[in-house]
């Protein structure tokens, strides 16, 4: 009986596995020490005449390329010295440093040869890291060079990011030397892009001329294959006639025939470019109907579209590259990050993020440099200390959301703004600044008018403007001087006690505006601030019936894209309003 009890006790104790984290890190450190001490090295790799003593075991464990070399019946498996071709010595030194330490050093000047070396040696982590690094460094000055590299090596994520960058900055890009070094296939892919931000199609023709003339003898023969990608239906007859008379066309009779054929067919399948149909608009989002409304009071234009197919929109932002993102309530526990495809007029899901704790109306999406920030206020702390949680997402790499430093505060009413490379949280009595480079919050100068109820804010350059709901008090914060000053409020023709406005500040065409919404349409106003004279001027414009839950954002909107959507959307504007 005792034996049976003992057996039962033993069988109830389940085996466990243990992992020694210190051993894992220590093992790699020891391997690195052996390499530095030049101990137990059993092979020499020679690259561009430089000799690198190494360990076959370490190389084989790190790289399938070396594993095949040293474990299969290859000549290199028996050689003491192995010469490697197709590599730069400096890049191979960086690769070895990574293999023996697990640390990779990447910079813009060496990311391309580092990617090539990793591609040859089948080092997936190095290759993927280089891809991500290139994607986050797609800027006006780098987009063409990175595009050419990504096209040759089929790095699709980088190639797509570069095409978007080239389209956005096309007028600046065509003047660079990198543009003239494009291949004919790369050139035609770029000028075929619907999203080219050009106001006139003649800009595309002039870019083609510059590319051909850079190497006239070699490239003139390609002109007939390039010309069909120019949208002659967007040119005036005079522009087309001028192109037909251009010396390049005269040198190649086939080119003039191509142009005439394109014009004769009407090129009806060629859409307008983004730049020919885009206007800067203030966008307002209404949650219950997922309605997006845009207005440009100066132009007297507006539109209204509903998107019932996506989850309820909680917050919206616009990046410096004119991309419109919204945060939408996907489920009880998850939020969707959606990007508006302006050319198609549809929303595309980019990411899903776990919902941060907090009230649904105190969650924000904000754009700062190449990152998007998801910010939420958590009211549930029993001590009444409010915490602001935040996550960060790199929009160019489509990676995971990362945690950011949390702000703890004892007042719940705070609104965010982005200015001068930092994120700010404003309340009626305090101001906090988040520095993304340091991942830290800092307290800044409090507002002077701390007795007023804060309602709306907007950033313009290095300044942040804020107002109360009734637009009776307006102040501005200088982010560089860390100083507040008061601005004049609107001298309303109404008596102060009759004011019943909901003020919303926005920046349109680089000017500070405020939309004063009221239940009575006759009392709705749009004002613009004349900084030189220090006065608010009312715009003479008839406004549509509007409603919204999110603070307005401003973007250049491709109006042909929303027109198709609006055609199937119930209009709420008055008959006398001007529509897009």
- SS summary, helix count: 20
Overall residue-averaged pLDDT value: 84
Q: Structural class of the secondary structure composition? A: alpha+beta
Helix fraction?
25-40%
CATH fold-type name of the largest domain: Neuraminidase
CATH superfamily placement of the largest domain? Kelch-type beta propeller
* Percent range for β-strand residues: 25-35%
User: What is the end-to-end distance?
Assistant: 91 Å
The CATH C-level class name of the largest domain: Mainly Beta
Main pleated sheet:
5 strands, antiparallel
Categorize the overall geometry: flat
The CATH architecture assignment of the largest domain turns out to be: 6 Propeller
Q: Measured on Cα atoms, how large is the radius of gyration?
A: 30 Å
Note poorly predicted spans: 567-580
Number of domains: 2
Total strand segments: 28
Question: Outline of this structure?
Answer:
With 580 residues, this protein is α+β, with helices and mostly antiparallel strands. Helix 3 packs across helix 4 (64-71), helix 6 runs antiparallel to helix 7 (124-136) and helix 8 runs antiparallel to helix 9. The termini are far apart.
